[in-house]
Amino acid sequence: MEGLMGFVRSPAATPIVRRSLFYASKSKKNIWLRAKLNAENDPLLQAATSAASLRFQEMYRPGKPLLFICYLTPKPLFVDPYAGCLVHPDVQMDLKECSHQYCLATKFIDDKLLSTVNHIDGLKQVVLLTDGMDTRPYRLNWPTSTVIFDISSERIFKKSAEKLQGVGAKVPRNCLFLHVPLESSDIQHSLYAKGFNGNQPSIWAIQGLPVMTLANFKEFLLVASSLAMSGCLFLGELPAWLAETEIGIKVRFRLQNRLFFSFAFSQYARLYPVVWPLAQPSTEKWMNKLFMSNGFRVDFVGYDEVAKSLGKEESPGEYKNILFVAEQLQFSDDQMETWRRELQRVEEEGDEEGFEEL
Q1: Which residues contact 260 (CB under 8 A, 6 or more apart)?
Q2: How far is CA 280 from the centre of its chain?
Q3: How high is the pLDDT of residue 13?
Q4: Residue 160: φ, ψ to 5°
Q5: Which of 19, 105, 132, 310 could bond to 157 as cystine, CB 3.0-4.6 Å?
């Protein structure tokens, strides 16, 4: 615990102050919304509960007997002993043999998080961007001196925290768990205020975070880019509509332009308008560009690949999320500030030595 007692952020660059794009409405309107929302009409609560339900069902999902021996049943992808307290008592169980893509992604993220932090010496920082009902801080075996930051909706987090406390959920010994409200006007400043240190290694994971707009996700990507050290990972799931929205806008723009120029040419040549074929932009190409513009090199992971590596079968049907792992290629703001101060110190010492020689 002594390592956590010394968890104080070193002097860093002045954080970028930006208003949240997701929660830009006036405070009075927000108060009215909170008063009106309940379990039946709160989309964030419903989404978080549905995800917890999938984790709960995964623990009881049957599978094909191992080695054709009936009494050797396969293990679930993961064990979430706290998911049960977060779901409705009358939850409908879907006990098919195939694992849902969300559960495959959950297992993949779990393994990546633990394998990464277990190779970090000293202080370990984990930033989870979640739906407010993520049980990873409690159910994963985090190593000593791990500090976990959960960025999620405050109202959802409070509801789940009460239920988890009621069943005795606790983070591992010598670890620290801190919540950063998604409603914060400046997420980066809030992380700094909680003690995040950009001169220490970190790993970032996103799953379930209510990303409402492309601009909203770009804001979070910028925060991760500013705070994560070179070599740190950012992984998780993103809704596919992020790419589809951007690509759809570009396709419509190109179509309108080509229609216009085609029609203008046809009028000039007294021919019928011609529409040239359009090359559909690549989703991966667009996401590569988005991540690289923020200093990350990204790789995409197929859910079928994860299922195959785990000896599981993927549930049939369309799943509109993208699983990814990105590596930070540039220095964090804190690292850049440290280098700037060190360079300034060396220059000042050089000036003093030159003055003494004169």
Answers
A1: none
A2: 27
A3: 45
A4: -70, -35
A5: 132
Judged by phi (left if over 0) then psi (alpha if -120 to 50, else beta), residue 75 lies in beta
Q: Which of 78-87, 178-187, 251-260, 282-291 has the lowest mean pLDDT?
A: 251-260
| Chain segment 150-160, per-residue pLDDT in tens | 999 999 999 99
86 close to 133: Cβ distance less than 8 angstroms:
yes
Dist CA 206 CA 324 (whole Å): 10
Nearest-angstrom CA–CA distance, 33 and 23: 12
Which tokens hold the place of 171?
């983070």
Q: What are the boundaries of each domain within the chain? A: 22-240+282-346, 248-278
Of 32-46, 198-212, 242-256, the range with the highest mean pLDDT is 198-212
What pairs with residue 204 in β-bridges?
Answer: 127, 234
Give the span between the Cα atoms of 45 and 157, in whole angstroms: 10
Beta strand segments in the chain, E: 124-129, 146-152, 176-181, 202-206, 233-239, 296-301, 321-328
DSSP state of 276: P
SS3 label, residue 148: strand
Contact 228, 332 (CB under 8 A): yes
The string of DSSP letters for 172-205 reads: PTT-EEEEEETT-S-HHHHHHHHT--TTS-EEEE
Query: Residue written as tokens 């390592």?
Result: 3
| Beta carbons within 10 angstroms of residue 52's beta carbon | 26
- List the 233-239 sheet strands across, edge first: 176-181, 146-152, 124-129, 202-206, 233-239, 321-328, 296-301
74: its two tokens = 């396969």
pTM exceeds 0.85: no
Instruction: Determine the Cα–Cα distance for residues 75 and 205; give it in Å rounded to an integer.
Output: 25
To the question of domain 22-240+282-346 being in CATH 3.40.50.150, the answer is yes
Report the candidate in 156, 144, 151, 133 with the shortest Cα–Cα distance to residue 205. Answer: 151
SS3 per residue for 99-110: ECHHHHHHHHHH
Lowest mean pLDDT among 122-136, 184-198, 210-224, 338-352: 338-352
DSSP strand pairing (124-129 vs 176-181)? unpaired
